[in-house]
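Title: [Solved] Prephenate dehydrogenase/arogenate dehydrogenase family protein 3D structure

Original question kept below for reference.
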Amino acid sequence: MFDKIVIVGVGLIGGSFALALKQAGAARTVVGMGRSPGVLARAQELGIIDAVAQSPQEAMQGADLVLIAAPVAQTGPILATLLPWLEPHTILTDAGSTKSDVVAAARAVLGGRIAQFVPGHPIAGRESNGPDAALAGLYRGKKTVITALPENPAASVERVALAWRLCGAIIHRLTPEEHDKVFAAVSHLPHLLAYALVDDIAAKPHADLLFQYAASGFRDFTRIAGSSPEMWRDISMANRDALLVELDAYLAQLTKLRAMLAASDAAALEGVYANAQRARRNWIETIEAAEPRPAQESGN
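Solution (posted by the thread starter after getting help):
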């Protein structure tokens, strides 16, 4: 399907994309680019990429598809590096967790060639980072949101969608603005809360004792705090306005819960818990059950 794919940032997200397409027999050659020669060498050693680009010109020569899988704040500088060597047939896409800022950066850099950039966001991840964390099955049964631009040719959008389908993903479509509002609530806020809780516990004078007794509930709630701090710093700042709206709403909810607890209002507290339990069950049954579960990966 693709003669040459370029991955900018061969870590968990970019590496898993490459492995999935290789496993599907859809990529003749995968070339890696990135900031760290050691990471690129490791990705080649693991068979994630076939070659390391020695320059942007070398990487872009004959490229069919370029995936930018780097922290969102790097999107503009990366595109500026690639632009001089961008061939007319090459499609650019990304895997960033925010979209409005990415689109703005792409428009500023690409100008009249913005039609070649099709924004995307795979909804999958792990707490581990780097090429060693990459899995061929990471996207199997998971959503990928494509936030196509008015300038994008339908064929280019479908080409990007095809690549993700070959990875096993289920395609959804939103505008960049819709995407950022949705994910501020269901992704960006939970990450902020997980980081905040672990940071709060770690700062206590008896942190060692607390962590000694933290069990599965704490581990499950805070799993996402093991994600890349650099990546989530950029996401938080990029989607600041929408995230502040969700954070204020959550603070108001916490204030209500505190009042219930202070007043020993057990019935009201149970009502919140019961409503949350019902909502979560409905989510699992109606949303998650409608999509195929990914096959178990060996070693996980």
